[in-house]
Fold:
Amino acid sequence: MNTLSQNRRTFLRSSSALVALPFLESAGFRPFVSAAAPATPPKRLAFLGVGFGFTRDTWYPDSKITGSDYQLSEGLSPLERHKSDITVIQNLSNQYNNEAHWGSTFWLTGANRYAEPGQSFHNTISADQVAAETLGKETRFTSVQLGYKGGDNGHGPGLSLAWNRQGKPMAGYDTPVAAFHRLFSDDKTPLAERQAALLQQRSVLDTVLEDAKSTSRGLTKADTDKLDEYFQSIREIETRLSKEEEWLDVPKVRPSEPIKEPGAGLEGVEEVKMMYDLMIAAMQVDASRVFTYRQPLDTFIRSMGATITSHNMSHYSEGARKEVSRERDLKQSELFAHFIDRLKAIKEANDTTLFDNTTVTLGSNINSIHYLTNCPTVVTGRGAGVQHGRHLVMKDPKTPLCNLWLSLLKGSGIDVESHGDSTGQIEELFGAV
Amino acid sequence: MKFFQAKFILLTLVLNVAPCGAADVPKALMPESHFAVFDKYCIECHDSLTTEGEVNLDELSFNIDSIQSAEMWQKVLNVINSGEMPPEDKAQISQKEKTLFLDDLSHQMVVAREVLSDSGGVITMRRLNRREYENTVKDLLGVEIDASDLPDDANSGGFDTAGNSLFFSSDQFEQYLKLARTALDEAFVFGKQPERRQAKVEVEEGINTRFQKLSSKIEKDFKRAEEWRATEGKKEPSDFDFIDENDVRFHERLYNQQFATYERYLSQENSKSGAMLNLLFNGAVVPTIAVPKNWPPGDYLLKVRIATLPGAESHQHFVEYGEIAANVRSGEMAVFGCVKVSASLEEPQILEIPVSVTKAGSRTFGLRQRQPNSRDAARYTFLQSQIKSGAGPNPALWIDWLELDGPIVESWPPRSTTSIFHKGMWWNQGDQSVYAREVIEQFTRRAFRIKEPSAAFIEKLYGLYEIETKKDKKFHEAIREPLAVVMASTGFLYLIEPSPGQKKKELTDLELAVRLSYFLWSAPPDEALYAVARRGELKDPAKLGWHTNRMLNDPKADEFISRFAHQWLHMERLDFFQFDFKQFPKFDESVKEAARQEVYQTIRKILNENRPLSDLLKADHIVVNDVLADYYDIEGVTGGEFQKVSLPANSPRGGLTGMAAILAMGSDGTRSSPVERGAWVMRKLLDDPPPPAPANVPQISRLSGQLLSPREMQKAHMEEAQCAQCHRKIDPIGFGLQNFDAAGIWRDTLELKKVVKKKVRQKKVIPIDASGQLPNREAFADYYGLRDRLAEQSDVFARGFTESLIEYGLGRPYGFSDESLRERILKQAAAKDGEMRQFIHALIQSKPFRTKK
Structure:
């Protein structure tokens, strides 16, 4: 298997731009200038949210056949070559979500929209941000949120999949170009100037805080809470500046072969593929260890030739709309298979690959059409110790999705006791069914 | 008897959600009649003794008054909707009981959620939303910015003015800084006033040379191919400079696709003196003019000498103008507008189109004959015509020349510069550091509207200026940084209404001025409004009313009209779909844009002419421009301006239900959707929104794949209580609009098609039966009847409109505690013939609008 990846490495390139992935050894990679390369590669987590769910009768494997003898469904068939390295889980859901078009808002949080009296919207921290609090300490980017430009696409409110400790939405990079520049472009200015620039940025923050403090006087409770978002944002930037200061003399690591900037107009399938490749590249150079990707769906199906919207597709009936939905499922799985190919192809220390140290979940809070039970869930990667190659159908048809997040967090070495409405870990993930 | 029954139902409904006195909190009550359903089907397993699945319905209050009981009721709703309960082996709830139960419960859940999340009228301090931010920057700097990297703040279901939903993220802070720096760079203009100049292009020169080259090359290659063909395989294609036989075929194809079009073009007399606008196999004839490199950004006039060609139909007399980005393919452009050409070749006309040249833009402008805005669609149109004529569609328009004239400067240095450097250029000032402090302070006050910047803040801003000067920056470069920081500060970004020590207070005159101008203009107050507020006179009802009228009459209120209407009527749906160009060749981008404008412009006319709100339900006139009149087949309308046109008595137009935009929103770009349209009418015209689509309802799969009419589909919906609870009300309204196709054109029959793998497998044409009924059982026989029944409901329409207006204007969700406010507004407006303008007056004069809570 490994030899295949070795060879594939040389030609598995994005079709539209060249994001070459180096061996870490050859890039002379070290996460800290002061610290030696870690003896064991770091744990990583990635979450891929697809918005509207999949086609009900062709995406889910037959729930009667569980364990390792199951058959991949039509929609998952492009993952056949990775069958022993993925886990398909059924019967997970978020008990509080009643919003039939919100596939991402509560996907990683499990929150109850109405939990706060006098408020019509409430959310809590997402699993990726819990992970970032630990895994993000040692990397240049605490976490990376990827997204797209344009409509709702079945995701629901939110700026990315991520929600911070305060339950407020976190922004992401909306285009491959933006992500590329943030992750890989180096500031060419001399060190002294960059130090001065950081200092100047701190003065800017200090200045706006002065004004914000005077604004906060005499506000009502609701206004104070609102203004707190501003303070929180400034604090986040301060934290980031501190980090940048630490990393100031460490150049951004680029993959050793030249990386080309992604094309500006990339949309749909090509855009998703490029984002996947950028995630892989960022993992490889350890720019970050926590990733979320809120994926486009309108442009996704349009780039495959459909003329309907993703919402329309999600209400498929027999005929044209269902065909679009099934084609979309296939393409999604093809891209996911490509993503896994890449994970397996990139070598890390201790004779491992990215695949051995990373855990990726692909899914949505929406099952299919307007169904919110049995959220589609595929997990891959060995970073959290999941025993793959199996089809798990939870006995309790309403097992909290947060039990999965808790399991993956704990499996990745995060010290948490619960997440959202979790009731415990999913033991089946780690051992015999 | 029936009549009484209907009235009775209405009465109980009203009682259930009756506006109680302002102090009373409305209740979400499940009618006790549903005890029976619990008794019969649920209690056996879910009473206090058995509590199967930890659900105890014995103690569940039928008054849904807490988050806990709402959660339990939500569970009940979910399991019945999904068919999970009652379990298969137990007695099943009858369809009738279930329909009524679900109908009541889903509605009461909406009430309960609203009651439980009612903030009691609290207005949360609001950040400028994206468009307010853009307008405010324009007001401050005179510069138009592109803020599309900021979140668009569109709020699903609500308005983008709802303070509570306007979040702030660290990424945004950085965007604000970046945008401010760019905007300031553009605002700083120094040096001499640029001279106004003209550049003219005789368009035929470039086009003819290019076409001659292309056609002679195509012809030469074709002849070479013929020569090889003549050898009948005795010689190799390479002997004739072809790679292989495929290469030969490629050149033959090229000839067949394109040669005749170029030949015809070049042979026509009119191509010698100008450009004939035409579709080509590869794009279109697009005469262009580029702004010379050394001409500065600014406002210019694009002048075009143009005429129609003989033989063209009037539908083809429209020319589109726009910007041509670098590297687009032939025929592609970013369309700014579309205008009808009326002059003939004997007496061409000169169009003058104002365009603005920016630093970043492409700086190339062009015109083309109106065409579908997608290459696929344009090629399809070309090929359809090529089959008949051999050379594609006939050109309909002729352009003699293009001219650019500008920049047109109103004052120099521009206001953007003088308003920042208020005492003139820094090189004329004595002590630059003193002037810097002055500029910073003056700018901050202006940017902060009414907030007094603290001395410490100004000091720190000055510090930022000093840091920059130490880097050897020039004055205007160094001053940019503190000014940009002002534009990322709370005083600029938030609408602040402090109320020290108290929860509720009357707004100051200045605060009222700001709230008013962001309501009606989505922009800061102008000098006149500030002045009256500073004098402490704005709170005077007469003055407040006078300024309300003045501001509504100002073109800046178009922002309120369009953005309010867009969100109130859920017009984002108009952009959800790409319309199939083969099916709707006439519904192109220009028509879609004009259709969107029709909604806004109709409201504008209603406001300007003090017409009643109910004009939106039914009217004997229509407000259209030339493009839309052409689409509606209404004659005698010229010019791009929207104008009022009387309608014949039997016209289906006149009123929202006859507008192309509204009808297109109720489709999926291919088919009209009675469900979408019916639900929209209930939400927007009848103030009776169906509850949100329930999750987990089993899909009716029995009928999948069959060729069913919408009415047959509805019948199926009626079989399942989960569907019937809403669809029994929604669908019958939607049927009344079936005479309009997906793009809003009238039809008498309906074509049903079954498409499998992009092929039509089955087809059937049925007559349209547009009869139906409103939820209040008022029946109608056809579309005209529906429109009349709706027009009779102008009271409930006004109620829904008022609730949305309150929500938009106060920047918070409409709550039950607003009912007395709503009733007062309705009463005041009714006293003045229901004039739309009076609703706005009544809200602005109301206490909640003048109070911070």
Summary: Chain B touches chain A through 82 residues (CB under 8 Å). The first strand of chain B starts at residue 126 and ends at 127. Residues 98 and 721 of chain B are 6 Å apart (CA to CA). Confidence is low (pLDDT under 50) at residues 1-23 of chain B.
